[in-house]
Design a protein that fits this description.
heterodimer, A: alpha/beta, Glutaredoxin, Rossmann fold, 5 domains, five-stranded mixed sheet, 25 helices, globular, B: alpha+beta, Ubiquitin-like (UB roll), Alpha-Beta Plaits, three-stranded antiparallel sheet, about 20% helix, binds flavin mononucleotide, binds iron/sulfur cluster, binds FE2/S2 (inorganic) cluster
């Protein structure tokens, strides 16, 4: 393609950042040295087009056919991490190297919250003011920072740092949470949670002086996983045997060796014995439903790819793909983060079994951009699995071929939606696609693709090992197995909990030590911003897909967020509405404008200045909710009013 | 073509200098026979070829479905959602413009749910975008009884200054409904220039060159294909814009003449719009097999020289 660029030139440092991701330019067409092979004569003969970087396993998808475009997100990260913002010159250089028009590079870069297209100090403190942190002092934290530094956006540390308000960082069990990012030759991230203004200020100073600790965060199992062995001493009987969390924290930082010692990779070995069909049979018998929110039968999803395996043999241009959805950005959700930090090999094992069944040779983990420690641990796990024959060309001597690549998100909740996720990996704006076609027919790079949530995949090795029917006996008839819940807000021991499906909400809250704050429960938010509120009179609800559905609620991503009776729920609803206003991709009208009108109406109600009467406003909100639910393209718009509607049903908040 | 030559005498065909192939003249392979699929719309049965959309089927029954982001010549993006219909058994409404028919579908195009969503979509648009040069949308707003003013006067809109950075066309993104058509026309669906893209996210999503540089600094080649597809007048010939500003634009006094572009051998169809002896714009029919509505800078804008001549009142 003949591209046109403005005169803006990349600095030497910006070029180094891009080249460190892409390798040195191979031809003058990508701004390298001019060579003979760069000639493109108009007889169309002599110019052998240099092929893009094929180091990544995407070669499995047909080499240069997809161009280099799928490298766009990693390259944008490389610039942002090194420079702290993406300049017009850097953007041009990216376009040149990847053969993408600069307007398109700009369109993609400006889609993501983590990329700055204006000069910005290299150090940024992202201070969460979202709904779980609000219950644990984020207001005071922000007020203190305002007092010390100035309003959000003000700089400190000699102009080298700023602080910004942020939505949920997925650290809600340690609220209020702060993430400091520091761009530079050695970019760093560091979490402070629970945070104080002093701690944030000194972290920023440390960052400015290059003194941040090497590790981005510490997984403290005693805090984040209250059911873990460390907390059990002597009270073993209070706890169910854990299936998903049992390895977390045992033997320190996760290694392949301890993973195997604790039973790891036995599921995969069994699967290899059973064969793809037998493995699929066990999975079907387990009745496992996806844990990412939509509760779709995992076996059905894999079977759709399994049934297309024959086509793979006849058509070398086809390739199946499995994706682990680790974009976890639903406010209040942090379970996937803890699984990745504490038990990364279990995710790899689950994905490898998925590959074995579906015939995929390439896997991706789409990992939330803010999750630095999880990314580090997953990366280390992949490397170690590769070196020891658990990934690669001949897995466990079975000739199974499978590779996994991590792709970091960049601050866009919508990219957790599976089809938006495909676009994001492919280097396009993270806008959902219309369905049909469904991902199992046409997903990543238009190939049959199975997307699964982290928790779903962690369930798999155990299911194969113990047998599907054993798993199905756990939980209830229609909701098999155990489930992770993210307890946060006004609860005594926030953290991730594993209980059998069918546990009553009250029991779960008791397990976490009950209500704190004023001690009087006002409301529970189930399933996050896209979820539903329930009241104290509904605590006997059984936590199953069907039990929650019966009261018009949802399990969603497993959030159980408690609010005591001092909380102004209207403010919480407003914060949720602002979240959607910020996170809609903007593609379809009902959602793009609907979430704005919804937030505006709510704002008017909160300050008691309704247009017309309160009744009129509420009726209008209901109408908008229905149009968003009915006419939006994806789940974001379809559920953007659900928390609000559930609250309006239960309480008269605006009378 | 305005006129056929008066001279009906057959001309001698030029003699080919390359020998003609002796076999039969090669022909394009016949189009694959497409299965016919029967569906029900508002209780009536209709059969359409496999691969058709619900919109095609509705059209066949004479049902007028509002559309904004749809155009025959572009790949469907189905983002405006004004065409949604109710599909029996589906959880949500589905876009008629892109959803392919499947056997035994049962569709309702005028149910309460459909009317509500269409009304809200129109209200959402009209409350955030200046639709003053989009008469078709106003007709739909009347049909669905849309009242955008009910969202109050403090509501967020996309109002912004008009961009006039070249002599050929202006961009007034206060009128942009973000239908993606211009981006598609500038990109793989027609022009392959990629001068503009959707940038930003959510309500701030907008059409932009890289870092909003002026068009002359961008990759734009002024084919004007984006103007041709814009449904709201956000993209407008400078001539039209100036005349509107001066209050002299008057469509009822305009005529349209079909002709063929004189510049090169491609043979693009031009529709020349003129008012009071002045050319005020050039379009090309979407259904024309050569252009599909697309032109290049010469066909689209290369008529200024015609106006350099003083207008001859006798039309000679
Ligand atoms: C707006 C939106 C955000 C989503 N975010 C996530 C996410 O962060 N993680 C996730 O696993 N699924 C997310 N999903 C659901 C995915 O689209 C998909 O259904 C899921 O990853 C499938 O995995 P499962 O079958 O294992 O549940 C999201 C869906 C929507 C509509
Ligand atoms: S519903 Fe919202 S997030 Fe989903 S495609 Fe539409 S605008 Fe984007
Ligand atoms: S005039 Fe042509 S090249 Fe320029 S923006 Fe419009 S479609 Fe693209
Ligand atoms: S400028 Fe016109 S064609 Fe382009 S997105 Fe806006 S309304 Fe659509
Ligand atoms: S980290 Fe603050 S709400 Fe989740
Ligand atoms: S015309 Fe169908 S969604 Fe826009």
């Amino acid at each position: 393609m003949d591209l046109h660029f403005t005169d803006a030139q990349a600095t030497a440092e910006e070029r180094v950042a891009v080249d460190s991701e892409m390798g040195a330019p191979e031809s003058s067409w990508q701004s390298g040295q001019r060579q003979d092979s760069d000639r493109r004569d108009n007889d169309g003969q002599s110019s052998e087009r240099p092929i893009g970087d094929t180091r990544t396993a995407f070669a499995a998808f047909g080499g240069d056919a997809h161009g280099r475009r799928h490298r766009l997100l990693p390259v944008l990260h490389a610039i942002q991490n090194r420079i702290g913002w993406i300049s017009p010159g850097a953007l041009n250089y990216i376009g040149l190297r990847l053969d993408i028009a600069p307007a398109e590079v700009h369109g993609v870069a400006s889609f993501y919250g983590m990329f700055s297209l204006q000069p910005r100090p290299p150090i940024v403190a992202h201070v969460c003011d979202d709904i779980a942190c609000v219950t644990r002092g984020s207001d005071k934290l922000c007020a203190d920072l305002e007092g010390k530094i100035g309003p959000a956006g003000s700089s400190c540390s000699g102009g080298r740092a700023i602080w910004l308000r942020s939505q949920c960082l997925g650290l809600c069990e340690r609220a209020p949470a702060v993430l400091v990012t520091s761009a530079g030759e050695k970019s760093h991230e560091r979490v402070s949670a629970p945070a104080s203004a002093d701690a944030v200020e000194s972290l920023m100073d440390d960052a400015a002086q290059g003194r941040l600790p090497a590790e981005p965060d510490v997984l403290n199992v005693q805090i984040s996983v209250p059911q873990s062995a460390q907390n059990r001493a002597g009270k073993e009987s209070e706890f169910l045997p854990l299936r998903l969390l049992h390895r977390i924290g045992k033997g320190g930082a996760p290694t392949l060796e301890t993973y195997q010692k604790l039973g790891g990779y036995r599921g995969l070995r069994k699967a290899l014995d059973l064969g793809p069909e037998g493995t699929l049979g066990e999975l079907a018998a387990s009745k496992l439903l996806g844990r990412g929110g939509a509760a779709f039968p995992t076996a059905k999803k894999w079977e759709a790819l399994f049934l297309q395996r024959d086509l793979l043999r006849h058509d070398p241009a086809r390739a199946h793909c499995v994706i682990c959805n680790a974009d976890e950005s639903e406010p209040g959700t942090f379970k996937d983060r803890i699984l990745m930090e504490g038990d990364p090999f279990a995710i790899l094992e689950g994905m490898t079994i998925a590959a074995f069944v579906t015939g995929a040779r390439q896997g991706y983990i789409y990992l939330r951009g803010e999750y630095a420690l999880a990314a580090e641990r997953m990366q280390r796990a992949i490397q170690s699995a590769n070196e020891n024959g658990f990934l690669g060309d001949n897995i466990l001597g079975s000739r199974l071929q499978f590779n996994i690549e991590i792709r970091r998100g960049a601050g866009a909740y919508i990219c957790g939606e599976e089809t938006a996720l495909f676009n994001s990996i492919e280097g396009y704006r993270g806008e959902p696609r219309n369905k049909p076609p469904f991902p199992t027919q046409s997903g990543l790079f238009r190939q049959p693709t199975a997307v699964n949530n982290v928790e779903t995949l962690v369930n798999v090795p155990g299911i194969i090992l113990e047998g599907g029917s054993a798993y199905a006996r756990l939980g209830t008839e229609n909701s098999a197995g155990t489930r992770l819940f993210c307890l946060c807000g006004h609860v005594a021991r926030p953290g991730v909990y594993e209980v059998a499906m069918g546990t009553a909400l009250r029991q779960l809250i008791d397990l976490a030590g009950g209500v704190v704050g004023s001690g009087k429960l006002q409301a529970v938010l189930l399933g996050g911003a896209a979820g539903t509120f329930v009241g104290p009179q509904e605590l006997d609800t059984l936590l199953t897909f069907e039990g929650t559905r019966a009261i018009g609620a949802t399990l969603g991503s497993g959030v159980v967020m408690l609010f005591d009776d001092t909380v102004d729920l209207r403010q919480i609803l407003l914060r949720i509405a602002s979240f959607f206003r910020h996170e809609t991709c903007g593609q379809c009208v009902p959602c793009r404008v609907g979430v704005v009108r919804q937030q505006e109406a709510l704002q008017r109600l909160v300050i008691a200045k309704p247009l017309g009467s309160v009744t009129q406003e509420v009726a209008m909100l209901r109408e908008m909710a229905q149009a968003m639910r009915d006419a939006s393209i994806c789940g974001l718009g379809q559920t953007a009013a659900s928390a609000l509607e559930s609250a309006m049903q239960r309480w008269s908040l605006f009378a | 073509m305005t006129q056929s030559p008066n001279n009906s005498q057959p001309l001698d065909a030029p003699r080919p200098t390359i020998p003609l192939p002796r076999g039969p003249v090669p022909q394009a392979p016949p189009e694959r026979e497409r299965r016919s699929i029967e569906i029900k719309i508002d209780g009536e049965s209709v059969a359409v070829a496999e691969g058709s959309t619900i919109l095609d089927a509705a059209k066949k029954l004479g049902i007028d479905t509002p559309t904004l982001c749809f155009l025959e010549s572009l790949s469907p993006v189905n983002v405006c959602r004004v065409c949604v219909v109710e599909l029996e058994g589906a959880r949500t409404l589905v876009p008629a413009c892109s959803r392919k028919v499947e056997p035994n579908m049962s569709i309702r195009t005028d149910s309460e749910r459909v009317r509500l969503s269409r009304r809200l979509v129109l209200e959402f648009l009209a409350s955030s975008v200046d639709l003053s040069t989009a008469p078709a949308v106003h007709a739909y707003m009347d049909r669905y009884d849309a009242h955008p003013e009910r969202f109050g006067s403090a509501r967020a809109t996309v109002a912004q200054p008009v961009i006039i950075d070249n002599e050929l066309y202006v961009r007034d993104y206060s009128k942009c409904v973000l239908c993606y058509k211009c981006v598609e026309a500038c990109g793989v669906d027609a022009q392959n220039t990629f001068a503009i893209a959707v940038a930003g996210r959510g309500f701030s999503a907008h059409i932009a060159t890289e870092f909003d540089v002026p068009l002359p600094d961008s990759a734009c080649v002024y084919c004007g294909n984006c103007i041709g597809v814009c449904p709201t007048g956000a993209l407008m010939f400078k001539v039209e814009y100036d005349m509107r500003q001066a209050g002299t634009w008057n469509e009822s006094r305009q005529t349209q003449t079909d002709t063929i572009c004189p510049y090169c051998g491609v043979g693009c169809d031009l529709t020349v719009h003129q008012q009071e002896g002045q050319i005020v714009g050039v379009t090309s029919p979407v259904d024309h097999s050569v252009t599909h509505g697309n032109l290049c800078i010469k066909g689209r804008f290369g008529w200024q020289f015609v106006q350099i001549q003083p207008v001859d009142p006798d039309g000679k």
